[in-house]
Amino acid sequence: MIEDIEDELEAINSIYGETTLRKASSPSAPEDYLLTIPQHEATIRLWIPDQYPTTCLQITAVEGVGSASPKGYGTHVLKTARQVVQGVFVVGQVCIFDLVQELEQMLDKKSATERNTAQAVQESEDQQASNARLSQEADISSRTISSPQWTVSDTVTEKKSVFLARACAITSTVDAQSAVKHLLSTDKRAGKATHNISAYRVRTQVNGNDIVYQDYDDDGEDAAGGRLLKLLQLMNAWNVLVVVSRWYGGVKLGPARFGIINGVAREVIIAGEFAVDSEPHR
């Protein structure tokens, strides 16, 4: 259905950028869309039938790849995209966002040797991060944020559902947990929200090495937390917790809800200057 496609287009572009998924400018092919794969210099052409998502979309071609791409990269992208769409498609459920995420991961895969090397390095870093986390949380376990300084978005109402985002500066996972707990215990309206979707990212240094903590919570709004964290990553937002409250109005919004959630979240990230180029919250 056209409405399903439009909702999914809005949701994906609210996370990855407004030209990530767009209609192909071809009067002879009104059902064709172009999808630029985030973080990769490749654009694929999708054929999305009127019966979608009852009928599966098709990957018809690679529209273009970067000039620096190795020989055969376009063929690899096309083959991988077609494999992925067959794996993520479920009759009656939109799947383009899942296609984007899975395709990103598949194209990021390296050779077996490189993966083994990366795994060994990752295991060492994970152990270091784990030790650092235990040390950090032991030092600050008794500390809480008594009154977080929230940056608050405008309220957005869609078909009786109400959305509101908040963001505050944090320096640890304990800060993030304490801030959410404080919000829900002191703000009666937030405490009564149907969902309080949250995500955070923290970057700190231990013994001169960068340590990163990040996590999310859907709070019952399936897949919303992961998409919110993805927005923080794409905006390069650090040392910030974002909480998006939704009060359900009785009408299902489908994929359009993700566009609204990420829209109000983007607003508070920018307003609070939490992106990478914002010195006050680095």
Task: Characterise the protein shown here.
There is one protein chain. With 282 residues, the chain is of the alpha+beta class. The protein has 8 helices and 10 strands. The strands form 2 sheets. Strands 5, 6, 7, 8, 9 and 10 form a 6-stranded antiparallel β-sheet that branches. The longest helix is centred in the middle third of the chain and has 29 residues, at 112-140. The protein is globular and about 60 Å long.
Question: What order do the helices and strands come in, and which of them pair?
Answer:
Layout: H1 2-16, E1 21-23, E2 32-36, E3 42-47, E4 58-65, H2 73-88, H3 96-108, H4 112-140, E5 151-152, E6 156-158, E7 161-169, H5 173-186, H6 188-191, E8 195-206, E9 209-217, H7 224-234, E10 240-247, H8 256-271
Q: Summary?
A:
By secondary structure, the protein is α+β, with helices and mostly antiparallel strands.
Keyphrases for this structure?
single chain; 282 residues; alpha+beta; 6-stranded antiparallel β-sheet; 10 strands; globular
Number of helices: 8
N-to-C SSE string, H for helix and E for strand: HEEEEHHHEEEHHEEHEH
Distance between the termini: 44 Å
Show unreliable segments: 110-115, 278-282
Mean pLDDT: 85
